[in-house]
Structures are given as C-alpha cells and as structure tokens.
Write a structure and sequence with these properties.
Strand content: under 5%
Low-confidence stretches: none
Structural class: mainly alpha
Shape: globular
Mean pLDDT: 94
Number of helices: 5
Length: about 170
C-alpha cells in the first residue's frame, strides 16, 4: 500500500485538502496493520499503556470517527459508542481479542460513513449534540481535529509496528 499513499493536491480547495489529509492518515493506519497476525495485533508492548495495541488503535479510531461525526456533529445517540462508557475507562480501546480483519472492516465502514456525513454538509455547519460543548463546533473544526487525532495515532502505529517486527516507513 505504501506506493498508493498520496498527499492531497498542492493546489486544493479547503474541503479537498481536509478530506485528503484525513484519508491519508486513515490509509497510513491501515497500512501499518498489513501483514500483522492477530497475536501481534493484540500484543501490548508499552507497559504503561497496555490497551495501546494495533488492534486497540484501530478500535479507538473507529469509535473516534463515530464520536465526532455521528454523535457530536449529527446529534446521534452515544449509547452504542464505548467511548462514552463512564464505568470502563478507555473502553473504545478494548477489543476482547476480536480479529484484526474484523476491526479493520468496521473502521473502513465507519470511515465510509464519516465521508458520507462530510460530503452532505457544509464546513460551516455546526454540531447538533446539546449535551457536549464540542458538539457546537463546526464541521471544519471537527475535521481538523480528526486529522490531528488520526495523524497522532498513525505515529503511534509507526512506533508499535517497529517494536513488534522492525517494519518501518512513512511513504
């Protein structure tokens, strides 16, 4: 996949640039999972952050997309999203040993759903969830945040993958 990773055009409009950078970071996360077996995908290598596994990262990012675009932006129900589980810290990182292929398919589906939401709205449209301050942000702000968060976790994936099997690379 590395050869398929492309930055957005240098002369892009705002929407194209934002979605292009978000899609690139999403692709990098998926790329970092290529060739991993389930044992390695679920192996914790950071003693102080045991949930930060490749599988955990993918699960977290699936629910992060859901949080920002389906719950906060569209005003949807947060009950199905483990990120809102007050009784289980970092519940969105816990995978219960589910196969990486399943987690990646769910992430891919969530990204497709997120893109549908993004394409149907104006960057100036604001979120609709009244219970969260961040729900009043406009779509532009939420997309910039998703680029930042996805990029940060793509960096974590770089480190985790290198520690798992020595594979590294950005492009």
């Amino acid at each position: 996949m590395a050869s398929e990773l492309k930055r957005p055009p240098l002369q892009a409009d705002e929407r194209t640039a934002l979605i292009g950078w978000l899609d690139l970071q999403r692709q990098i996360l998926r790329w970092k999972c290529e060739g991993l077996n389930d044992g390695d995908a679920h192996r914790s290598i950071i003693p102080t952050s045991p949930a930060m596994t490749m599988a955990g990262l993918i699960s977290h990012m699936r629910w992060t997309e859901h949080t920002w675009l389906e719950v906060l932006f569209l005003g949807g129900d947060q009950k199905q999203n483990p990120s809102f589980d007050q009784s289980n810290e970092d519940a969105d990182w816990h995978t219960d040993g589910r196969p990486l292929t399943e987690l990646l398919a769910e992430y891919e589906a969530q990204c497709a759903r997120s893109n549908e939401i993004i394409h149907a709205a104006s960057l100036d449209d604001t979120g609709r969830h009244p219970d969260f301050r961040a729900g009043s942000a406009n779509l532009r702000w939420m997309l910039i945040h998703l680029v930042e968060e996805t990029g940060r976790h793509a960096g974590h994936a770089d480190i985790i993958r290198e520690l798992l099997d020595g594979k590294k690379g950005y492009y």
